[in-house]
Design goal:
The chain has 203 residues and is an alpha/beta fold. The chain has a 5-stranded parallel beta sheet, with helices on both faces. Helix 4 runs antiparallel to helix 5. The radius of gyration is 16 Å and the shape is globular. The chain starts with 5 loop residues before the first strand and ends with a helix. The structure holds thymidine-5'-phosphate. The site of thymidine-5'-phosphate (TMP) has 12 residues, from helix 4.
Length: 203
């Protein structure tokens, strides 16, 4: 495998993905490895503008508009990814699986359209590995409750996040070799170790 892999962190709200991503970044900095870090929605300058629009609590877009905005945000990131692809390690906080999990499994938008546009945008870009962070409803709710500010996508009902998480699991079941499931209900220190060990193998 490439030593400059593209690695994605996925999972629902409160699953700990951003925490683990930060920890991986700390490790890569220490190792003086070249990497770029992107989040979706957001990442590049233009994508961050789109992120604000989607997640603003005052926004009232319908599910198709949301989908198109998430895809627009991705479209603005692709150049950044292409520029660094194979040259630097690329870490992404959410990517194409989030769109399938949230917009299809969560909201019921046609999966064929999502896949078509994702394929169109990614072309030859391959995701080398994905950490899928999983959390139970109780812990998810507790962790969301602790957040100072909730955005528009932090406020759906528990059933919605359950559907999304089941969607993520279905996606990883299709290609298990490229995924690692992280049970974020378990000890966080041990999970950190598990993730870093895999990162050492990947980079
Ligand atoms: P974040 O809080 O992890 O940055 O993610 C923002 C929200 O955007 C999160 O609720 C998941 C959602 N999202 C989608 O619904 N579809 C997507 O394609 C992406 C990338 C994120």
């Amino acid at each position: 495998m490439s030593k400059k892999p593209l690695i994605v962190f996925e999972g629902i709200e409160g699953s700990g993905k951003s925490y683990h991503l930060k920890n991986v970044i700390k490790y890569l900095k220490k190792q003086k490895k070249k990497f770029i870090q992107i989040r979706e929605p957001g990442g590049s300058e233009n994508s961050e503008k789109i992120r604000k629009l989607i997640l603003d609590n005052k926004s009232t877009f319908n599910k198709n508009t949301d989908l198109l905005l998430y895809l627009s945000s991705r479209s603005e990131n692709i150049e950044l990814i292409k520029k660094n692809y194979g040259k630097k390690i690329i870490l992404i906080d959410r990517f194409v699986d989030s769109t399938v999990a949230y917009q299809h499994y969560g909201m019921g938008v046609d999966i064929r359209f999502i896949k078509l546009v994702n394929d169109f945008l990614l072309k030859d870009i391959i995701i080398n590995f994905t950490f899928l962070n999983l959390v139970n409803s109780k812990n998810m709710k507790e962790r969301l409750f602790k957040r100072k500010k909730l955005n528009r996508y932090d406020q759906f009902n528990t059933n919605f996040y359950t559907r999304v998480q089941k969607g993520f699991i279905k996606i990883q079941n299709e290609n298990k070799k490229k995924y690692m499931k992280i049970n974020s209900n378990l000890d966080i220190t041990n999970n950190k170790k598990i993730i870093l060990n895999k990162i050492k193998e990947l980079v």
